[in-house]
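Suppose you are handed a protein chain with no further information: no name, no annotation, nothing but its sequence. What can you learn? This example shows the usual starting point.
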Amino acid sequence: VNLGVVCPSGEPCLVPVLPGLWAPSTVLLAGFSLVLRDVVHHCLGWRWALSSIFFGAIISGFISDSALVVSAFLFAELADFAVYAPMRKRYPATAVIVSGLVGSAVDSAIFLTLAFGSVEYLFGQVLGKFWINLLAGVAIAVWRRRKQSAIAISA
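A reasonable first move is to predict its three-dimensional structure. Written in structure tokens, the prediction is:
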């Protein structure tokens, strides 16, 4: 579904990500998918994370009209995985934010180039996905701080 605030003829529907900066409407959902992959990695381990990436690529292949969605999804998720994996134990909140930023840049560059022949909305698309990753990173940092405080109080 391509819903947005503005739908220019022959272009993707757009949503604002900053005042005066627009991105394709599916940008927020795409950012959320990168966070979900990090959650799978954190809760179930790297094998499940990689399995979910490849399973997601297969599903994308069945439901999308072209290989561009599959390639953008696959490369973005693998880039996110490559950044998140070494950072996740020591810096979990930062790992979600940084890996999401890398995955978003890869996804956006591939998708926009293949789908529209242009990277005109690259910055807006990466920024839109970044907002989702930033919210998740802040939530993780707050949760960890509260958890550590609770442990310190009970000790």
